[in-house]
UniProtKB/TrEMBL annotation:
InterPro entries: Catalase, Catalase_core, Catalase_sf, Catalase_SrpA-type_pred. This is Catalase-related peroxidase. GO terms for cellular component: cytoplasm. The lineage of its organism: Bacteria, Pseudomonadati, Pseudomonadota, Betaproteobacteria, Nitrosomonadales. SUPFAM superfamilies: Heme-dependent catalase-like (SSF56634). Belongs to the catalase family.
Amino acid sequence: EDATESDKPVTEQIVNTLTKLSGGPHKGYRANHAKGIVAQGEFVPAKSAASLSSAAHLQTKASPVTVRFSDATGLPTIPDADGNSFPKGIAIRFQLADASYTDIVSISTNGFPAATPEDFLGLLNAIAASGAGAAKPTPIEQFLGSHPAALSFVQMPKPAPVSFATEAYYGVNAFAFTNAQGETQYGRYRITPINGTEFLSKEQSTNAAPNYLVDELPLRLSKAPAKFKISVQLAAKDDEVNDPTVVWPENRKLVELGTLTLKNIDANGVAFEKATMFSPLNLVDGIAASDDQILLARPGAYAVSFGRRFGQ
Ligand code: HEM
């Protein structure tokens, strides 16, 4: 690490620490969520969707979708049941009629460990400084002791799903949804399997094969489509919309946006995922970013990772 590391943009420092934590660089792979699998299908909007947003894919027509499921960390060979492979990720790209697209990029935890990119970097650097031989209390013990949101994220149960298709995913960052009448409401995405979530027992996850999730999805889709409901959890009047560490109460209203149906694995998925940068800020009219600093920092970090994987 050179002396000027701390002068670099915080997003680039995060990518560098993610790379270091995964023993990288792993050429051609993402700096985070490196291991993944790509499927294809369609999204059919629900009647209730247009009441929330005028976005093109939320009106009446179905949209083709490409979905990438992933394990956390920059390690492309991480075992699918490894504790560090959580949260799982889902990145959804909706193809729109005018050849443009919009993305949803979500994780399997309802909440994030940091409210700012600086705090997220602090967490990652504390982990990196807490390897074997670190003096007690270690930097990560100290960080968690002074950052309750990071501690509760670390302590959140993260059971191993039976399938990427039996996991529930959360948008975590809020967006502003505006309908045709010009009414705006803040909300957070939820992507939930229509047949319910399903997790391995502790014993099953201990014995799970390293690639059990990426091996399971093709088998599952060869038998039947996998369906998810996409909805938005609406913020109540005083809910914090710009802080992804603040989980909203479960009694908040959910608006159903529609049904995501995955039909097959993308035969060109390996080339596609390398050449594609999903971004939570690939938006369309009717959906806008909140002022959440984590949300606003994400595309910058993703672009650094994408540039190293593909462009350079
Ligand atoms: C400041 C906060 C964050 C940073 C710096 C960050 C960093 C990264 C980076 C560098 C990548 C690789 C992107 C690429 O190479 O294409 C990535 C991927 C990803 N991130 Fe984040 N992330 C952050 C927050 C989040 C949050 C809040 C979520 C979900 C709510 C999330 C979900 C994902 C997912 C699902 C992927 C994989 C996307 C794909 O399949 O292409 N990240 N992240």
